[in-house]
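Annual report, structural modelling task.

Input specification for the S-adenosylmethionine complex:
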Amino acid sequence: MPRYSYGTPGTGNALYHGENSKVLAHLAPALRGAVRCIYIDPPYNNQERYAHYHDALSHAAWLANLGERLEQLAPLLREDGSLWISIDDREVHYLKVAADAVLGRENFVSTVVWQQRTTRENRKVFSNNHEYLLVYAKDARRFRQARNPLAPSSDLLSRYKNPDGDARGPWQSVSANVQAGHGTASQFYVLVAPNGRRHEPPKGRCWVYSQRRMQQEIHARNVWFGKDGNGVPRLKRFLSESQPGLTPETLWTAAEVGTNDSAKKHLLQLLPDDTVFETPKPEALLHRILHIATHPGDLVLDAYLGSGTTAAVAHKMGRRYVGIEEGRQAVTHCFTRLRHVVEGERGGISEQVGWSGGGGFEFFRSGR
Ligand SMILES: C[S@@+](CC[C@H](N)C(=O)[O-])C[C@H]1O[C@@H](n2cnc3c(N)ncnc32)[C@H](O)[C@@H]1O
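The model returned the following structure:
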């Protein structure tokens, strides 16, 4: 077994220490059409020299370099797969055009805005508090059907109650009338409640069902007339029959998915003796991406692994993964972090997903 492999062998999880275009060329035959979600967080070309990598190419060289990697990555996607790219204000517009050329404008899904810091940067003209995720699908139509909604919030779930002790479980009520303009003659009548009270539809409205159907629904205890039976009729919608998942919005706040600072704090708990990695993504951000884009067992790929966030999150969420990193952080951060994950590390999203350890990964040096 390679030196930095760890845990249960044969999981299919792999970390590659090498330059990504060389590693991708090597992996292409095996991964073609197999990857459910690719996430990349390349250097943003912001002319910084970080402790773990340099980020100072000319605009043209940076764009050509990334365009070549996108050409290599796109064929690896499954038909229902998606590609997510982190980027900031400096290059996002150029990258969008370059990525359109590779994946097709019609397969561009959305731009997500992530609030990556909550403190004000006073040395700049504008304090840059957000960056972007460009979201592409291999096939936008397939992705639309395949993507997962977000889990319902506790606020949404709290709207489902059971004031009449219905054996079918909690429900919420919705209006029993619709706009009159859309109705047929059979929807205009005086609705008589079980206690004899008579209800006219509100002005400009008609009942959602015909009189006969409404009586059937009342009989089936699907219509609610309030606790005392005198209320305006409303329809019961059961939690067990609805899928109250939320459509993801395009604004992802720090409170929901964390910040670069929260990610650094997590890394410092995990790797206290190391030089801090300056640009990690929070696990909660990757958790949301992988939740929307994948199911357990799906294959996830990150070709700019950095400190290993994507692999750590995929591991904790029961997804398989391939991560590629050319810097020495492939060992100092990715290997060490994933070893902690296998051992049941408690930070990041561990509590949220009930992570308690297990599994394994293989580590390869490649193309260097
Ligand atoms: C912004 S960091 C990624 C951070 C990561 N998302 C995290 O949460 O830690 C970009 C990483 O890409 C790596 N990188 C840049 N060019 C690369 C290449 N051609 N092949 C492999 N890795 C590369 C850099 O060494 C750096 O660690």
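The mean pLDDT is 94.
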